[in-house]
Design brief:
The complex is a heterodimer of chains A (380) and B (402). With 380 residues, chain A is of the alpha/beta class. Chain A is 22% helix and 29% strand. Chain A folds into 2 domains: 8-275, Spore Coat Polysaccharide Biosynthesis Protein SpsA, Chain A (Alpha-Beta Complex), CATH 3.90.550; 291-374, UDP N-Acetylglucosamine Acyltransferase, domain 1. Chain A has helices at residues 41-51, 66-72, 103-109, 112-117, 136-145, 161-165, 208-220, 226-231, 255-264, 268-275; strands at 8-13, 34-35, 39-40, 56-59, 86-89, 122-127, 130-131, 150-158, 175-180, 183-189, 196-207, 240-244, 250-251, 290-292, 297-303, 308-309, 312-318, 323-324, 329-331, 334-335, 340-341, 346-348, 350-352, 357-358, 363-365, 372-374. In chain A, strands 15, 17, 19, 20, 22, 23, 25 and 26 form an 8-stranded parallel sheet that branches. In chain A, strands 5-4-1-6-11-8-12 form a 7-stranded mixed sheet. In chain A, strands 14-16-18-21-24 form a 5-stranded parallel sheet, with no helix packed on it. In chain A, strand 9 (175-180) and strand 10 (183-189) form a beta hairpin. Chain A is globular and about 65 Å long. Chain B has 402 residues and is an alpha/beta fold. In chain B, the strands form 7 sheets. In chain B, strands 17, 20, 21, 23, 25, 27, 28, 30, 31 and 32 form a 10-stranded parallel sheet that branches. Chain B has a 7-stranded mixed sheet with strand order 5-4-1-8-13-10-14. The radius of gyration of chain B is 22 Å and the shape is elongated. The chains are: A alpha/beta (380), B alpha/beta (402). At the A-B interface, helix 10, strand 14 and strand 15 of A face strand 16, strand 18 and strand 21 of B.
């Protein structure tokens, strides 16, 4: 009899891979980057967990986390206000001489006492740079059936250009696997090979007791990264199983892929693929519906509530409360919450961060390979 | 700890003139304005006016309303002391009774009100579209030293005889009340929103209950009794947008007015007076290539491939290729299939309108009917629904209903 997965708790690392998108994380972190017109990246993994019956979730914030605290608040929107479990946000434990940790090992070493006190048998861990509507029940079931020590989810995909381009290791580590009969036999760290690979999604499950042991040992030895420093050296001793994920995956690996992954959702097929699983919850803003006035021209657009559209919009993703005035033209752009495009302005291949204003008559144009990014609160 | 003022919201109305829309739900739960239900307006007004305790009196088909209100969190009315409470009629040691009238509904909940020991009680109606600051109203009530105040609207004299009218002097003191009179002496229509001093209200409710002849109604019994006793009664003038959406045509009209905030006086887009509602949780709406969307409001989950003009679409509505939606109110999760033409009508939730079907028609001459399609109905391919039709049951493909 397979045990119910009611006995899993979740740990999310919202800062990992921040360095891949320096523009977008200037005032926030990976987890709180707006995505798909009304969400933040963390909404996907968080909603996946809660709807897979995981109701004890720890978010290991490291830095720049005010935006995420604001977004998550008490966790109510994800049904995480619970007497048992619920949402825990763990900032780094600061001491006089210590710097904040890097990597998952340091993060989890800081909450070992908490982990020891929990009742859940399993732990699932995940980052927020991979947008998925993930069924953790299925992952845990596979883990138990295979009698694995650790199970890691992966998908088969081309190596993202953004990662190929990053020449140094200071942007975080990413991993591909060799797999034999479902077992991970080799882990490659920051590989440079082209073509389709078994690409780690950094979503794992293991027993809580085992995690505590592994982290304890690794931390004592000054190690930092879970995959590189804990799993890789132990592939012979531990049964590390690979779990192939065949659902829709959007990976954010640089600003270009951020742009592309938003745009990809303009295709109904992709939109349905990402949203056909669990409902994805997010913070509620209580906007009015979006209003399109007489004379507005809109083609191939995804928009959230609270927008006022008077001009022309084509092939674009509009977040909440965007205003496009009369005679303004918006093409192939991503306009985050509160962007204002004034009368007669024209933008193309633009990523406008929150509350950007493009003044009347101005033009801003990027190209398909290089979208222009404008920082939060800037006025052009 | 006493509350200064609590609200009692009358939400028991069947809304029988809305027919197909209120078969399965009470009128206050009828969807409005793209993502709201009618009751969101008085509830949001309460919160925005600083009232944190609301009793909702339900009777007719309360299921949808109960679920919708839940713990009151979307309106910020989940409070440790106070908050929102749904109050259906209940059984007492002395027997049980349905709410016999508006006054009786409050009478049966005297013990609820007394838990909060309020100085004032505001009585609200759950079937009006209105953005109103009740704290202004209370200020007026206090300044006048009133025992009872009623919010009134000036209406055109020629229409006055359709309303309950308050005759008031220069100082706003009410001297007479006329219920739908043939010869109106005033054009101040009661909005059915009252503030009472709680001790006065309680006294008159108990007196009213003891009178076997009474209809237990505020307009017909309580107010005349207050007048009889020469109580300090005042009329508070309200000049904002107010609409009783009691009929299909007024409901349709009010929705259309939302599309024209510049002229209609109802501005839902005002950040300082938000109307709250329970969220659909759907993803952003999508307008596909080849679609036309003009002068309309769309919300989460809508997917548009056809033409949408001068219409309000609720969450999850799909309009397929070649379909035309015009002057229409289309409620949640309804699907308008390819080639269908849907005009000048109200279509309720979860309706399927088949391919090339025709629902309603644009007004021509004296023909201004608003076709209505009830919850969950399927209209077959090529079927036709006339401009005055009220559809409650499925219509087979190719058939017509006028």
């Amino acid at each position: 009899m397979v045990k119910s997965n009611r006995s899993a708790l979740g740990i999310i690392f919202p800062n990992s891979y921040d360095a891949l998108v320096p523009e977008l994380v200037n005032v926030r972190m990976m987890a709180s980057i707006p995505f798909a017109s009304r969400y933040r990246l963390i909404d996907f993994i968080l909603s996946s967990m809660t709807q897979s019956n995981i109701h004890n979730i720890s978010v290991m914030v490291n830095n720049n986390y005010h935006s995420l605290m604001d977004h998550l608040d008490s966790g109510r929107e994800w049904d995480l206000v619970r007497k048992n479990g619920g949402l825990h946000i763990f900032p780094p434990f600061a001491e006089k001489e210590s710097k904040p940790y890097v990597g998952r090992v340091g993060a989890m070493a800081g909450i070992l006492d908490f982990l020891r006190d929990q009742k859940e048998e399993y732990v699932v861990i995940a980052d927020t740079n991979v947008v998925v509507n993930f069924d953790f029940k299925a992952l845990i079931k596979a883990h138990i059936e295979k009698g694995a020590d650790v199970t890691i989810a992966y998908n088969e995909q081309e190596f993202p250009e953004g990662l190929m381009k990053s020449q140094s290791n200071d942007k975080g580590f990413y991993y591909t696997f060799n797999i034999e009969d479902g077992r991970v036999t080799r882990i490659f760290v920051n590989p440079r090979e082209e073509g389709v690979q078994n690409f780690s999604m950094n979503i794992s499950v293991l027993r809580r007791e085992l995690l505590i042991d592994l982290i304890n040992t690794a931390f004592v030895h000054g190690q930092e990264y879970f995959e590189r420093d804990v799993l890789l050296p132990r592939l012979n001793k531990l049964n590390v199983q690979a779990y192939k994920y065949e659902g829709y995956v959007a990976r954010i690996s640089d600003i270009k892929s951020y742009f592309d992954e938003n745009m990809r959702l303009l295709d109904d097929y992709n939109l349905d693929a990402l949203f056909s699983g669990h409902t994805v919850y997010t913070k509620i803003r209580d906007d009015t519906p979006t209003r399109y006035v007489e004379g507005a021209k809109v083609q191939n657009v995804m928009a959230a509530d609270g927008c006022l559209i008077e001009g022309d919009v084509e092939n674009s993703v509009l977040f909440r409360g965007v205003k496009v005035a009369k005679g303004a033209k918006v093409k192939n752009s991503i306009l985050m919450q509160g962007t204002v495009i004034e009368a007669g302005a024209s933008v193309e291949y633009l990523v406008a961060d929150k509350n950007v204003t493009i003044r009347a008559g101005k033009e801003m144009k990027g190209t398909d390979t290089f979208p222009v990014y404008i920082a939060k609160f800037r006025t052009v | 700890m006493a509350k200064e003022m609590i609200a009692m919201l009358l939400a028991g109305g069947q809304g029988s003139r809305l027919y197909a829309l209120t078969e399965k739900l009470a009128k206050p739960a009828v969807p409005f304005g793209g993502k709201y239900r009618i009751i969101d307006f008085p509830l949001s007004n309460c919160v925005n006016s600083g009232i944190d305790t609301v009793g909702i009196l339900t009777q007719y088909q309360p299921l949808v309303l109960n679920e919708y209100i839940g713990n009151g969190q979307p309106w910020d009315l989940d409070r440790l002391y106070g908050g929102v409470h749904v109050l259906p009629p209940y059984q007492k040691a002395s027997g049980s009774d349905w709410y016999k009238g508006t006054a009786n509904a409050i009478y049966q909940n005297i013990s609820f009100i007394e838990r909060y020991d309020p100085q004032y009680v505001i009585i609200l109606s759950g079937d009006q579209i209105c953005k109103q600051d009740y704290s202004d109203f209370l200020k007026f009530h206090k300044e006048k030293g009133a025992e009872f105040s009623v919010a009134v609207m000036e209406v055109p004299w020629e229409e006055a005889s359709r309303f309950g009218l308050m005759v008031a002097g220069e100082d706003d003191r009410i001297t007479e009340f006329q219920e739908k009179p043939k010869e109106p002496k005033s054009n101040l229509a009661s909005m059915g929103i009252y503030i009472f001093n709680w001790d006065i209200l309680k006294k008159y409710l108990e007196e009213d209950e003891a009178d076997p002849e009474s209809e237990n109604d505020f307009g017909n019994n309580i107010i005349p009794n207050l007048l009889r006793d020469n109580r300090k009664m005042y009329a508070y003038h309200f000049d904002g947008y107010w609409k009783d959406v009691g009929t299909i045509s007024s409901l349709w009209e009010a929705n259309m007015e939302v599309l024209d905030p510049e002229h209609s006086g109802i501005n839902l887009f005002d950040e300082d007076w938000k109307i709250y509602s329970r969220n659909s949780g759907m993803t952003g709406h999508k307008i596909c290539s080849g679609a036309v969307v003009e002068n309309s409001m769309l919300t989460d989950g809508c997917r548009i491939k056809g033409t949408v003009k001068h219409s309000i679409l609720f969450a999850g509505v799909r309009v397929e290729k070649g379909a035309v939606v015009e002057d229409a109110v289309i409620m949640g999760n309804t699907v308008v299939k390819a080639g269908a033409v849907v005009q000048h009508c109200i279509v309720a939730e979860n309706v399927t309108i088949g391919e090339n079907a025709v629902v309603g028609a644009m007004p021509s001459g004296d023909e201004k009917g608003v076709a209505t399609v009830g919850d969950g109905v399927t209209i077959g391919d090529g079927a036709k629904v006339g401009p005055n039709a009220m559809v409650r049951n499925n219509i087979e493909g190719g058939e017509e209903q006028w």
